[in-house]
Amino acid sequence: MKKVLWGFIGTMLLAHGICLSAQDETMDVPKSRPHDSYSVTLQGVYDYSGTFAHQGGVDLAGHMPFNPYFEADAGFEFMGPKTLAGTFVARPKFPVAVGELFLEGAVHLRAFKTSDIANFSMAASFGYRMDYVSVQLGVQSMTFFDLLKEFGDGRTTLSEPINLVFKLAFNVRPSTSPWNISFGGGNFTLYQYERFYYPIFFLGGHYDCSDHITVRAEVDFKPSGMFNMTTHFNEITARAGLTYNF
Amino acid sequence: MKRSLSYILALISCLALVPSCETLDFAGFVLMVDTNVNDRFDSSMEYLESNPFEDVNVSSNDYGLYLVTDIHCDGSNDRLERFVSACISDTESEKVVLCLGDIVNGRDYQKDIFGKLSPLADNGWRFINVLGNHDTYFRQFSKFQEFWPLTTFSFRVNTPGEGSDLFLGLDSADGTFGTSQRKWLEERLKEAKGNYRNIYVMTHTNFFNTDNTQLTSGNYSFEESFDLMALFAKYGVNYVLTGHDHYYEYRRFRGVDYYTFNALCNDTGSYYKMSFGKELRFSEISIE
């Protein structure tokens, strides 16, 4: 299993190298991200998983760029009567010659009505993002809560103290472009934090219809058994909606 | 040009990570394997229609069985032979071994393993095995199936004075129970609730990873973990017996005891002498 871990780290480093190389050829793009605007996003969600079959729901997310050095994100997801998720992310940023470095602290809660169990995650990570690529690596601590308080032995929680978080994302256009397509993978989104070995792959895009309105859509794919090396379909989630930029 | 060269070098490097590895099937990391849990479930149900799984009749209310997991046999050591010898020399135990998967390590060892296990069969022992992820590597599930056709099954252990225990053997090699097996499991548990002394689930993939000893190992997704944990509690499963992570761990959740058992293939290879009664007891035996 150590080989797998080293293989993964190697792949991440290689991908990072590719991205730096790609960035070298796009020096005409802005060297740091513009000060984005405050925004609110509302999306409809469709989900199919081997566990819950078909589900529908709504996402509500907010983006708060307080200044060029600090921003925050918040997201809430209501998936029918079965799942409720909420995440808050705080992100100090440090513009550098090409792109920006950032730290990210996140708290995430996802509760499952069908099982009356909730997962609470706290994550800390560091990352580097440029116009065409973003990489992020860190750790998270997870705690499972029995909402019925019946864990047994007087305990109502179980903890998995250290797990990794990672994300690698690519854009086909500079981040300032009025339209873009993004793709990549990681073990967390704004609406779920998974174990290290349950990656979520995504493909999404947005189009700025006007100064204030952006249309966006994304498809997430979460296979099972990837680190069992017996990859199998598990879950697909589609989101589409509008962002209002203030 | 520079970017193209970087891509090519990266691709070559990534392919080098999918090496001529003889134990891990890196293709399964990115590609769907040739078989999946739903297909294997259908195959098991079809087989069971004409070949019902035999119940076990024991002579004592507290009966002894052996349990082993993650044998990962590849001919590099003699732990499996020593385990088999230990079983056969035990005249007090019921003649049954429960195995929680990952029998094989690498390619083409199934016949070798079956040969090493044959003294058990020759002495009247049963080797009841669930599928592990390594058993499907290198597209060799069909070879596994020649010797163990069932990946999903149930059987009763009938005691002389305290009714029966129900054992459910489940396929979690893909890190999921799949939709068909999940449905079958709930139906089977509905029928079973309250009718058995104890209900045991035997499956390969463990549910918890709280000590983080094997960071890259694969469990279930959170939603499936929680769904199954709630299901087990709702229908009165007493014990969940798993392997996969090569270490021992015990956790209790809503009245269900979850065990992850240590592997026979570890340097301090372990197997377990189990005592099934009103409560489960066991002792770990190490093979240096």
Q: What keyword list fits this structure?
A:
heterodimer; A: 246 residues; mainly beta; Porin; twelve-stranded antiparallel barrel; 1 helix; disordered N terminus; B: 288 residues; alpha/beta; seven-stranded mixed sheet; five-stranded mixed sheet; 12 strands; 23% strand; globular
Summarize, please:
By secondary structure, chain A is mainly β. Chain A is 9% helix and 60% strand.
Please give a structural write-up:
The complex is a heterodimer of chains A (246) and B (288). Chain A is mostly beta strands and 246 residues long. Chain A has one domain (2-25, 35-245): Porin (Beta Barrel), CATH 2.40.160.40. Helix content of chain A is 9%, strand content 60%. Chain A contains one helix and twelve strands. Chain A has one helix at residues 2-24, and strands at 39-49, 53-67, 70-79, 83-95, 100-112, 117-129, 133-146, 157-171, 179-186, 200-208, 213-224, 232-245. A twelve-stranded antiparallel β-barrel of chain A has the order 1-2-3-4-5-6-7-8-9-10-11-12. The longest helix of chain A is centred in the first third of the chain and has 23 residues, at 2-24. The model of chain A is unreliable at 1-5 and 11-35 (pLDDT under 50). By secondary structure, chain B is of the alpha/beta class. Chain B contains eight helices and twelve strands. Chain B has a seven-stranded mixed beta sheet. In chain B, helix 4 (79-89) links the parallel strand 2 (63-68) and strand 3. In chain B, helix 4 packs parallel to helix 5. The longest helix of chain B has 15 residues, at 2-16. Chain B is globular.
